[in-house]
Amino acid sequence: MTMEKLSQLLNEGHEIKTQFSVQLATELKEVYAAESAKIHADRDLSPHGVKSKLEALQKELAKDVMKEVQKQKAEYVKKAAEATQLAKKLKTDAIKPPTNEVDVKLFEKELTQLQTSIMLNSNPETAIQEINEFQQKYDEPYYASKLQEVFPSLIQSVTTIDPNPIHRASLSRVYDRVVKKATTPEVVKANEVLSYFADGENVKLFREGLPATNTIKTAIGSITNHINTPDIALGILNGEVQTLGGMAGTNVISE
User: Fold this and answer.
1) Is 245 left (phi over 0), alpha (psi -120 to 50) or beta?
2) What pLDDT, in 10s, does the model give residues 31-55?
3) Is the dihedral of CA 12, 18, 23, 28 positive or negative?
4) pLDDT at 252 over 50
5) How far apart are CA 82 and CA 197, in angstroms?
6) CA distance 23 to 29
7) E strand or H helix at 2, and its extent?
8) How far apart are CA 102 and CA 113, in angstroms?
9) Could you tell me the CA-to-CA distances from 234 to 61, 102, 183, 248 in Å, in that order?
């Protein structure tokens, strides 16, 4: 169930990230074209009146755009938070120790013995063989993850005996087998989700220079520069935040 939920959240987050900007730009382009055409067709308006009406239209549309971006960003952040929490839990559950406490204690004892044996070993080949035999003995993801944790110290012990690159290559192959055992499908999915939603609240739903962003900028002007921070953009549009040189802190509605 958790895997299915994570896949759902991943798909929904991906849709917001990849489809929202295009959909918004398409709708805005149609609305702006229709409304601006009405203004230009109004013969009762002077050139100055047309200009004023267009500026008012820009501001009105800009507010609508930023409110929608604000809404979608909040939705993304919500999904990212939920997915991250579920992924961390799934990753933790995937490497829980076996229920048999005796087996776990036996493994821990043997792991300590392995570390000691490798530290005292004077032959790199036999040391590597011993490590490999140990990893073959334990297939549980939990055991593999514990061996993975101490592997750096095992590498150091072997390479202290002889730093020959051949031994490093052999250890690398053993380590790959350990990692494969520790990495269950649940861990793979959890890592995928954690990586995808790593942007969290800093997500940028619009990219400078892309067609969708350029289309929106044509309709609402330079306020588009703040489209990834809709709260600031709305503050500027409502006169609550001043800007200087395009930085939040001059009115940037018109081009």
Assistant:
1) left
2) 999 999 999 999 999 999 999 999 9
3) positive
4) no
5) 10
6) 10
7) helix 2-41
8) 17
9) 11, 61, 45, 11
The three-point CA angle 42-48-51 to 5° equals 75
By CB neighbour count within 10 A (0-12 exposed, 13-18 middle, 19+ buried), where does 241 fall? Answer: middle
Distance between CA atoms of residues 72 and 25, nearest Å: 14
Q: Give pTM, 2 decimals.
A: 0.76
In 3D space, the residue among 53, 69, 31 whose CA is nearest the CA of residue 223 turns out to be 69
Contact 184, 96 (CB under 8 A): no
- Report the b/e string of 52-66 with b at 16+ CB within 10 A: ebbeebbbebbbebb
Q: Which among 216, 213, 222, 209 has a CA at the least distance from the CA of 250? A: 222
Question: Contact at 8 Å (CB) between 237 and 55?
Answer: no
Q: Are 190 and 88 in contact (CB under 8 A)?
A: yes
Beta bridge partners of 247: 244
- pLDDT per residue over 147-181, tens digit each? 999 999 999 999 999 999 999 999 999 999 999 99
Query: Among 75, 19, 23, which Cα is nearest to 197's?
Result: 75
Structure tokens at 229: 């921070």
Q: How confident is the model at residue 91 (pLDDT cuts 50, 70, 90)?
A: confident
Rounded Cα–Cα distance for residues 193 and 29 (Å) = 34
Q: Is 11 exposed, middle or buried (0-12, 13-18, 19+ CB in 10 A)?
A: exposed
Is residue 154 within 8 Å of 115, Cβ to Cβ? yes
When pLDDT is cut at 50, 70 and 90, the band that residue 244 belongs to is low
